[in-house]
Amino acid sequence: MAELLKAKPVVKEIYTQLVHDITRLRRHPVLEIILIGDNAAAEWYVSNLIKNGTKYGIDVKLRQISYTIDQTELENLIRECNQDAGIDGIMLQKPLPDHLDEQVINSLIKPEKDVDGFHPLNLGKLVLEQPSLLPCTPQAVIALLKFYKIETAGKHIVILGRSNIVGKPLGLLLLGKAEPGNATVTICHSRTTDLALYTRQADILIAAIGKPEFVKAGMIKKNAVIIDVGTNLITDVNGTDKYVGDVDAEAVINLASALSPVPGGVGSVTTALLLANVVKAAFLKTKK
Ligand SMILES: NC(=O)c1ccc[n+]([C@@H]2O[C@H](COP(=O)([O-])OP(=O)(O)OC[C@H]3O[C@@H](n4cnc5c(N)ncnc54)[C@H](OP(=O)(O)O)[C@@H]3O)[C@@H](O)[C@H]2O)c1
Fold first, then answer.
1. Ligand 1 centre and the CA of 189: distance in Å?
2. Which of 1, 20, 113, 181 could form a disulfide with 176 if both were Cys (CB 3.0 to 4.6 A apart)?
3. Relative to the CA of 270, which ligand 1 atom is closest?
4. How confident is the model at residue 44 (pLDDT cuts 50, 70, 90)?
5. pLDDT digit string (tens) for 52-82?
């Protein structure tokens, strides 16, 4: 049966380091969250950030903005946050409503306050393997692999999904020369023909496609490590709402050597690393 790669001990380690770093900083870092509209999943994620941020010494300010905000108003709000010396990190909750241009907004947030790591400069530094504020979900996968001492060098890692926030940056991190990295990486997407041909070759399979329980037993190699990034809200046969991953955990649990659970896996580590990025941003400001 697969070892479960649970977030709990990883998160504990991240928060211990975070508290230590805040003590060295000698002030409370400030995170400004901009939340547009009233999406229940987004509100749940943000409430977790506020709860954990407050618990560990980060001042989290929430600006909940109406869905009707237009592009110019949002750009002006970002400029205001950029200029506010009291704000260390800016997090704009995604996805944005369709009438707002996400790429333009990502480029407008000051790179040193960009705790999501989506600014082109930060993504460029990731390509060049230079220190930067890294996107949190790819970092969370790396943190899980590192904590559970899963060897990546020389392994074939197959990633399902090529989004700018998960698949692509994660592929670059695993391809990089820092450990865990040095892997041979294949990234698959919705236009990949014969997906199982690739997934069955994976020593480590990472699923980030947003399709509930898509990965079945027949798609994996025996003893593969499976990291499930997917977070999908479904209603089960009893009419209960629950979160499931992109992997059919029940189907693969006896075949894989390790599996990250959903919930209690990548998602929880992501929250902790977003807060860690706020502390990193506060140090970047202090160094100026
Ligand atoms: N745990 C966390 O912290 C965290 C954070 C972010 C996201 N997530 C979850 O991770 C999942 C992916 O998120 P995302 O933002 O990356 O999603 P996204 O932007 O919608 O991208 C999904 C990717 O999956 C690919 N894809 C979709 N269906 C596929 C299929 N049948 N076969 C192969 N590839 C397929 C798409 O291909 P194309 O490019 O060809 O369309 C796309 O590249 C979601 O469940 C999301 O909730 C979790």
1. 9
2. 181
3. 3
4. confident
5. 999 999 999 999 999 999 999 999 999 999 9
